[in-house]
Amino acid sequence: MNLPKNSSTGNIPLEELRLITRAAWLYYIQGLTQTEVADELNCSRIKVTRLISRAKSLGIVDIRINQPPGFFVDLEHQLISQYNLRDAVVTLDVPNGEPLRRALARAAVEWLTPNLNGERVVGISMGRTLAHFPEMIEPGQKTGTTFIEVMGASDSVNSGFSSYAVISRMAQLYGGQARLLDVPTFVSNQSIRDLLMGEKQIAERFEIARSCDILMTSVGTVDEDALLHQIGYISEEILQQLQKQKAVGDLLGHFIDQKGRPVPSPLDGRLMAVQLEDLKRIPYSVLVSGGQNKIQAMKAALLGNYVNVLITDVTTAQKLLAQS
């Protein structure tokens, strides 16, 4: 155990320095417990604790963790600390677009699968990233998980990103069951929405969605690339109105500003989805998103405390951390 060049050990008596070094050697190199080190050195366990602590502060002990390629524990820990999260997963950078969506979907499924213990209820949102979930799942599992929509289905159920198609396939692959809300994402007016929400069967399904154990979602943007705009739910006029109101993104069709505060939308009275406040009560509310165009919306979702687990890529993680 060589002393580093910058070690401040010059003023420490030689015998004391030898004792500190020996305690560190026995503990870190020989693998003895602190009690065993105390027996070896004929001193108390409390003194051993102090000796080991001094070894670290003096630079005699230099602890390093060599992370395997593709693991970013430091970034994950910083995200958890800065945004008060329960968990975070950071994956390798890949090009934006479909490659990034697939990489994030794979990381999300790898996080989700070991968490499907017991009879879990998992809510799945609509999104282009979440649409890749099924292709990342190993078939033939028997989890007993219930997968449920957390917002109504897109009119285009064959478009590839509808939660209707995604949860049906996920339930099949995981050996669980799918629960569909059997309502569209948006209805014609608030009267129809209120009528549907008053139906017992629909109300019961929404109650299951609101009380799910895990909810997986992405975040939408407020620009020309926004999914809700692409599939025709948001007109150019409404998009411009939302931009004037300083909306930066949406969660489950609910729009938020840069601080995560709700932004009123002409669509609110027509939307069939779990509410923003419901997200805060779900044990694991998981945001799966990444890319330069999503950073502002992601930060808003984090600041609003709507999610408590984040799955993203390295560059996005670094930029979220830089924006304190």
From TrEMBL:
Q: Does the keyword Transcription regulation apply?
A: yes
Which SUPFAM superfamilies does its entry note? NagB/RpiA/CoA transferase-like, Sigma3 and sigma4 domains of RNA polymerase sigma factors
Top-rank taxon of the source lineage equals: Bacteria
* Cross-referenced InterPro entries: NagB/RpiA_transferase-like (IPR037171), RNA_pol_sigma_r3/r4-like (IPR013324), SorC_transcr_regulators (IPR051054), Sugar-bd_dom_put (IPR007324), WH-like_DNA-bd_sf (IPR036388)
Please state every residue range assigned to the domain named Sugar-binding.
72-322
* Keywords noted in UniProt: DNA-binding, Transcription, Transcription regulation
Give a single Pfam family match.
Answer: Sugar-bind
MF (Gene Ontology): carbohydrate binding; DNA binding
Keyword Transcription found: yes
Protein family? Belongs to the SorC transcriptional regulatory family.
Specify the protein name: Sugar-binding domain-containing protein
